[in-house]
Amino acid sequence: MTKEPVKLLEDEGLTFLTCMQCGTCTGSCPSGRYTSLNTRRLVLSARRNKDVYHDEDLWMCTTCYQCQERCPRGIKIVDGILTLRTESVHMGLMLPDHRKVAGLVIDKGHAVPINDANRERRKELGMDELPETVHKYPDALEQVKKLVEVTGFVQLVRNEGSEVAEEGQ
Amino acid sequence: MKPVSLFLGCIIPNRYPGIEKATKLVLDGLGIDWADLAGASCCPAPGVFRSFDKVTWLTLAARNIVLSEQMDRDVLTICNGCFGSLADANHELKNDPGLARQVNKHLGEVDMKYKGSAEVRHIIEFLSKEFGPDKVKDAIKRPLELKVALHYGCHLIKPSKDRDMGTVENPVFFDELVEALGAKSIDYEDKMACCGAGGGVRSALLDKSLEMADAKLLHIAEAGVDCIVNACPFCHLQLDFGQVEIKDKFGHEYNIPVLHYSQLLAIAMGYSPEDVGVDLNFIKNEEFIDRLRG
Ligand code: SF4
Ligand code: SF4
To answer: What phi and psi, each to the nearest 5 degrees, are found at residue B193?
Structure first.
């Protein structure tokens, strides 16, 4: 069952209830100048009800922490936004591009895997074609694959129901 | 100084390998005891993974940290995203035994155990604290007379509750390292502003993300600098490749060269711009590269 946001935040040791709606966060937000994100409003809406899980503004935050650093009430705004995002994702709401990035880590162990152009660049620089990462060590990649399996991450990302939701968008 | 393992992440080895090479040259040049962190994966990317599932984020981050614990080395990152992800994960796991138990249950499946014996470092704070600008200055061969727009990026200094880098509004430790190389760090409007790439915004909402980068680049252009210097390959990508995208999408052309601090330091140590891949950037400014050849 999806938790009420106030309870969800409380379980993570966080609260938005002390917010005095001063707007310092919104005034500090680099994203809000170009997107619909209004941090003060988002904080308020997370105090109300579960609608916040559907709020696309949750995904416009760059996690720059400027708001959190300046909040006069010491509210951990970004930690809260990340917690709300997590709940939203567990409801099956994921932006298609984020699902893709998650899939790359599941398959290759890198969110940005090597490509032909960069194999060439590495060689031009006199380096090994592949870096000393999971790219070079298949056993290490197997460990990563095992871990995303046992944490339930593969199922979360490749969940059929949410795949349909994505196509319907 | 504890020996370190070099954590590469994704963007440096797979998109800007010149930064990887520069970092290794610099670590050797400074006599730092470092080793490859063989078999490491994505940190994992904080924007997506931390937003998706906390335990998965912590488990994959812990695996990378354990690889370094097994070598009895601290983890050295060269990316603000990797630093943010791994340092924050390390912090959570050290302070929350319940979470550490949960993560260790998963790691047990691959015969690993997180102990909490390694620290996570970022090359800029590492150089600043372990060497300081004076010792860095002693290590260079060729002072670089450049006007530089410095971009700290966000997660090198924030959240300040989990960092130890002083003021987040007007930090100077990175400026000092740049000026140690003979360059001048030029002030510009909104210097501490985010590049716009993080939090999964670049990957899912490219145009919005580029509008933030465009504002940043405009302020930098107005300050009249020779180049941008950063501490993070994701900021590097956003400010370098981003200039190509911004030209295509918004018609604004800047043509400002972008370097990671490792590259700038390697050049001051006597390597050529080609040695460290400055010519492999998307923004190719021949005049600037010529000046770097000295
Ligand atoms: S800065 Fe803090 S107190 Fe002010 S509106 Fe934002 S969250 Fe509320
Ligand atoms: S952390 Fe997010 S909400 Fe806060 S100022 Fe930065 S972009 Fe805005």
So the answer is: -65, 145
Q: Which value, to the nearest 10 degrees, does the dihedral of the CA atoms of residues B198, B200, B201, B206 take?
A: 110
Point out the residues of chain B with pLDDT beneath 50: none
Cβ A162 vs Cβ A92: under 8 Å = yes
Closest-approach residue (CA) in chain B for A94:
B52
ipTM of the complex: 0.93
CA distance B25 to chain A (A): 12
Q: Which domains are seen in chain A, by residue range?
A: 5-90 (1.10.1060.10), 96-168 (no CATH)
For residue B98, what is the domain's CATH number?
1.20.1050.140
Q: Do B196 and A86 touch (CB under 8 A)?
A: no
What pLDDT, in 10s, does the model give residues B178-190?
A: 999 999 999 999 9
CA-nearest residue for atom 7, ligand 2, is A61
Q: Is the whole-model pTM more than 0.90?
A: yes
Alpha-carbon distance values, B256 to B54, B98, B183, B240, B293 (Å): 38, 48, 16, 8, 17
Interface test with A, best of B41, B92, B112 (most A CBs within 10 A): B41
CB contact, 8 Å: A34 with chain B? yes
Q: What is the pLDDT of residues A65-81, one digit of tens each?
A: 999 999 999 999 999 99
Q: How many domains would you assign to chain B?
A: 2
Give A125→chain B minimum CA distance, Å: 7
Same domain, B272 and B176: yes
Q: Are residues B60 and B194 located together in one domain of the fold?
A: no
Instruction: Compare CB distances from A132 to B38, B52, B192 and report the shortest one's residue.
Output: B38
State which residues form the domain around B184.
132-293
Would you say the CB of residue A40 lies under 6 angstroms from ligand 1?
A: yes
In terms of C-beta distances under 8 Å and separation of at least 24 residues, what long-range contacts does B187-190 make, across chains too? B187/B223, B188/B149, B188/B219, B188/B220, B188/B222, B188/B223, B188/B225, B189/B219, B189/B222, B189/B223, B190/B215, B190/B216, B190/B219
